[in-house]
Amino acid sequence: MRLALYQPDIPPNVGTLLRLSACVNVAVDIIGPCGFPLGERALKRAGMDYLDRAEVAFHDSWDDFLRRPPPRLVLLTTRAATPYTAFTFAPGDTLLLGRESAGVPDGVHDRADARVAVPMAQGLRSLNVAVAAAMVLGEALRQTGGFPRMGEDR
Questions:
Q1: Whole-angstrom distance between the N-terminal and C-terminal Cα of the chain?
Q2: Range of 65's domain?
Q3: Domain holding 105: CATH number?
Q4: Residue 31: beta bridge partners?
Q5: What is the number of domains present in the chain?
Q6: What is the pLDDT along the chain (154 residues), one digit of tens a residue?
Q7: pTM across the whole model
């Protein structure tokens, strides 16, 4: 199981997702370009003391990311018809998160193997990307038995 962040806009969300990934032993792909300078200093500030525990791969572009495509790419999107709670996840899935400001372009949306949404109250637009990722990743790890054992290290 992996998380992939498509051109993230907000450093604190990246930090939250890196912390989440470190805590549940899930690797992260960061697909550039980012909406902020993504240097070592910015990452350290965003990831706090969890950064050294996160497995992170950087990709300059979407095409760079697709040079080694994941077994199955599952896009979290408000445009999906399938709620994540009705979807069957697999251990090799990569959960793709769009930009906080704009989601993903149509070409990326079309390339996803599956699309899932978090059910929300009528008239509300979207959740924070890190919150949505935590909800969906939690369900994916529950279904696949992928959570680390309590007290177990990497």
A1: 14
A2: 2-144
A3: 3.40.1280.10
A4: 6, 59
A5: 1
A6: 999 999 999 888 998 999 999 999 999 999 999 887 666 666 666 556 777 888 999 999 999 999 999 999 999 999 999 999 999 999 999 999 999 989 999 999 999 999 999 999 999 988 999 999 999 999 999 999 999 987 666 5
A7: 0.92
